[in-house]
Specification:
α3 runs parallel beside α17. The chain has 569 residues and is an all-alpha fold. It is 65% helix and 2% strand.
Length: 569
Amino acid sequence: MSALTDTCTEGAAGQLHRTIDWRGAFWVASGVPALVLFSIGGIAGTTGKLAFLIWTVSMIMGFIQSFTYAEIAGLFPNKSGGASVYGATAWLRYSKLIAPLSVWCNWFAWSPVLSLGCSIAAAYILNSLAPVPIFTENSPEVLAYIGAHAGTSAADAITAVTAAATPAVRNWTLYSHVLGPVSFSLNATFFIGAVLMLMIFAIQHRGILGTASVQKYIGLLVIVPMLIVGVVPFFTGQINYDNFSPLVPLAAAYAPEPGTWNIAGWTLALGGMFIAAWSTYGFETAVCYTSEFKNPGTDTFKAIFYSGLLCMLLFILVPFTFQGVLGLNGMLATPIVDGSGVADALAGMVGGGQLVHALLVMLMILALVLCIMTAMAGSSRTLYQGSVDGWLPRYLSHVNEHGAPTRAMWTDLCFNLIVLAIASADATSFFFILAVSNCGYIIFNFLNLNSGWIHRIDNGHIDRPWKAPTWLLATGAVFAFVNAMFMGAGAKVWNPMALWAGLITAALIIPVFCFRHYIQDGGKFPDHMLDDLGMNSADLATRKAGILPYLTLVAGVVVVLIANWFFVL
């Protein structure tokens, strides 16, 4: 039996340690609801009054899909890395390249949470420490400017006065440049975000038990305020139910005029569904720690189920009250669309004066820190397990004395410092990174939702600690194609190049895998890789599902291409 199957609490040298139960994974995954802060403004800006419905439908889909992941995770009590690792093994019989694609796409979907979250948190900090002053037509400074510059309009005067009064740090940059469809900037947001990222790395260095302990307390400080933000407006009468109708898409993104359910309107709606999936499906990370559970047979299902319930509550409640209070015009305001003003808006919904406002903004920053910690813990373990199983370079297999996969974490950190420079530049660059990242996430979900029925066919004889009802497994497989449609139709809403950039990024796994498998390992997988299934490499030649997995892949590609051709703005 390989080292990976060691189940002692402390873990042998060079292994992850079995130190948490499902509650620990729940607290690590409790950062997922804060992902609503990443795209709540962008989705509002592109879908208008449909925004609350987009979040609700997406969350329900994510919850249904999670039952497939709960089942396949139970097959692998000695692996970490999450659903992508468990699903990849199902595809291994049918293609050596498809299996690592699942792991790779899951990693580059989750990893940018670090950089995107740090860029938003840095923007919140800048707003608190060096706010941009707000002027109106009647402000003394504006009237004085108009008096000194005869013929100047009020709008131009406000722009000029605001620019003059804006703190210099808001416009400072060490270096910036255009890089293809995006820009990058080493500005104040970048450096504040980098400091936050290093702080989170230091916490993660202590291993999963230390991470879960820290996140339990941060989670309580975050979840409770998000519930307050979601509930208080109902009691204060701030919800205006006229803000939810008519249920039609916008005529054009970021403009208040209502549109119709034509092709362009559907494209905007599908764009919202596409980007919402990146947040609402994210609680599947709760099964990322199977080899660190004390009792993986029972802890795995509980971790993802209760994490899903928490996300169901917050991902539906917060966007609903957000829209009910702000209304369409409020949601289309620039600080909301680009994300920098979301914390201020949410804090303003509660009221209570400047102290309460400042406290809630600080808690929103903590919420972002929490989801960044969740992402670093999950994505680094995906790299680690991908290395242990022979799909990614060997150097990623190392763990420190606390059982933390430090080399994978350093890889995450370095990659995200580059992405942070792009995300810090402007809203266009931020949403480009988010859209490319989500292309990987949709590909991962497509492969893994179909891995459920493939595992049932090929490994049906293996005991499952928890077995999903067949209708839920089948629904998940159908949702795989629905998600493919979201990607094909919706990625272009965020950037014309997003879909193709996402597919190119996904293809980068091919040379990486070929280097590991054919050069480092001589074309053979590690012997321990299939231990959980009671198999060896020779057993991979048995393909009970026949041609069905190949037809599924072809159908998925066709759905993406047709959706991309048919749905246009």
